[in-house]
């Protein structure tokens, strides 16, 4: 892992104010056990075997460190350029290029099957786990049971807890130990348990293994990105591109292209209204090198400005929205797009 990236993560993790990171009040044994009794009953009602419930929930205890990690996430004060410096770095680009070469045959097979370019599969894994090197080693049940009890995102994590128990109940984990990030994401793909059950894919026919099998990790990523019914992946277009705006563009222009009553996650809502590439060209937008935008009017194209009107600008296509479903962050999706471009060059 890039040494500078490690330093960045350490500094970023401690950038929250002290008031945000006061040690949380933990439940009493009675509160915890009463809540856990209800959870066990709900798990049984959902078809989880008594053996799995006893094995994984009998001795589980709330983890103060997990709640601290959840509540003490730093405020976003980093710029896009700073984010890209550490996330689309030289070591990640070189490793991604090597992955494309080393796994070319299997990636081409998966690409043909799911109709998605291999570079996007690799870029996602690069962003999520540095191509499988950083998967996390926290016991998932301990982490998400704690987060399911905590009020902040209880409903969401209860779903993850029951999904994790189902994964264990069906013996879908190769070694029987479900481990990953503090937030419950697992494997090279860093999928949350509900997503794992919905889209994890056994490509090589020996059981789903997104922890050790590149084939399964590739296929699971491809399956997720292309299985969004409302927004199918387009294999004949890219994610988007950086653009130059016309000179003396006004803030009123950006107000005029905002979506009305947008739906979706925050980064989806913050995209502009859709225009054709010809329309963006007529408004004065060009490629970053000043060349005209491609002539293609069958492609939905929207403007995003992650750092505001004084920052870098991008015109993004429908595939960008699929990347946002993996992680609803403009910085993240732009990074995946740019990383996919760089590793394929």
Taking all residues together, what is the mean pLDDT? 91
**Secondary-structure element order, as H and E?**
HHHHHHHHEHHEHHEHHHEEEHH
Number of strands: 6
Q: What distance separates the N and C termini? A: 22 Å
Could you tell me the radius of gyration in angstroms? 22 Å
Number of helices: 17
Query: Level of helix content?
Result: 40-55%
**Strand content range:** 5-15%
Net shape: globular
Structural category: mainly alpha
Largest sheet: 4 strands, antiparallel
Give the spatial strand order of the biggest sheet: 4-3-6-5
Extract low-pLDDT stretches: 1-19
Task: Please provide a written account of the structure.
This protein is mainly α and 345 residues long. The protein has 17 helices and 6 strands. It is globular, with a radius of gyration of 22 Å.
What is the topology?
Blueprint: H1 3-13, H2 29-45, H3 50-57, H4 64-71, H5 80-87, H6 90-102, H7 104-114, H8 118-129, E1 138-139, H9 140-149, H10 154-169, E2 179-180, H11 193-199, H12 214-226, E3 240-244, H13 251-256, H14 266-269, H15 277-282, E4 286-287, E5 302-304, E6 313-316, H16 318-326, H17 330-344
Antiparallel strand pairs: 1-2, 3-4, 3-6, 5-6
Helix pairs in contact: 6-8, 6-17, 7-12, 8-12, 8-17, 9-10, 11-12, 16-17
